[in-house]
Amino acid sequence: xxxxxxxxxxxxxxxxxxxxxxxxxxxxxxxxxxxxxxxxxxxxxxxxxxxxxxxxxxxxxxxxxxxxxxxxxxxxxxxxxxxxxxxxxxxxxxxxxxxxxxxxxxxxxxxxxxxxxxxxxxxxxxxxxxxxxxxxxxxxxxxxxxxxxxxxxxxxxxxxxxxxxxxxxxxxxxxxxxxxxxxxxxxxxxxxxxxxxxxxxxxxxxxxxxxxxxxxxxxxxxxxx
Length: 225
Ligand SMILES: Nc1ncnc2c1ncn2[C@@H]1O[C@H](COP(=O)(O)OP(=O)(O)OP(=O)(O)O)[C@@H](O)[C@H]1O
Prior knowledge:
It comes from Paucilactobacillus wasatchensis. Belongs to the ABC transporter superfamily. InterPro entries: AAA+_ATPase (IPR003593), ABC_transporter-like_ATP-bd (IPR003439), Metal_Ion_Import_ABC (IPR050153), P-loop_NTPase (IPR027417). Residues 1-225 form the ABC transporter domain. This protein is α/β, with parallel strands linked by helices. The chain folds into 2 domains: 1-67 and 148-214, Rossmann fold (3-Layer(aba) Sandwich), CATH 3.40.50; 74-146, no CATH class. It contains 6 helices and 11 strands. Strands 5-6-7-3-8-9 form a 6-stranded mixed beta sheet, sandwiched between helices. Strands 2-1-4 form a 3-stranded antiparallel beta sheet, covered by helices on one side. Strand 1 and strand 2 (13-22) form a beta hairpin. Helix 3 (103-115) packs across helix 4 (131-143) and helix 4 packs parallel to helix 5. The longest helix is centred in the last third of the chain and has 18 residues, at 161-178. It is globular, with a radius of gyration of 18 Å. The mean pLDDT is 88. Adenosine-5'-triphosphate (ATP) binds at residues 10, 13, 15, 33, 35-41.
């Protein structure tokens, strides 16, 4: 994916100006930056929810080659949330009036549930799952479409340390096995250093990119000069 001279704004409020960035196929890239710098805004533009004011976003060779998977920020679901884990994972496969899945769709659900280690608990209500299990269910839902670019937006923010590493280790495994490219938005530098190979560091007036060993910050947003 190549981003050239990208500008994004909300009405008159400019958030991103002249961003240039390349995401290499198969890489695990972390997007770092302080609160309010525009990380989620950038993700929204990649998901096609926000039209650039200027510049371009080109996905790999041709735009139709790209299949995006998106794991949103962790939101704790109500304990009473009515769907089981399996129903939640399959949610996007239901079309309008058709309340059942065909054999191929069932296989896709089985595969995503297996990939995310949810087989044993797939029939439990999602509302009663642990934070890590809920995030794995979001990941499984994103994997249903067999994405080649997976975007995780602060997906680990409210998970405890063990669960964060578990989720990211799973993502890294999928990245390797399936030639996935991963874009991971986070404030968590140790986690980024553990799993990512490239970074995009967003600051209010500049952007830096490179391989993780070129990242010279001790905490997000604070560059050593
Ligand atoms: N719908 C909107 N309308 C107007 N301004 C917005 C809107 N959404 C976000 N903003 C503003 O755009 C700026 C960038 O927000 P964004 O959510 O992209 O930041 P972020 O880097 O993801 O922050 P955080 O780390 O806190 O999630 C902020 O100043 C925010 O207040």
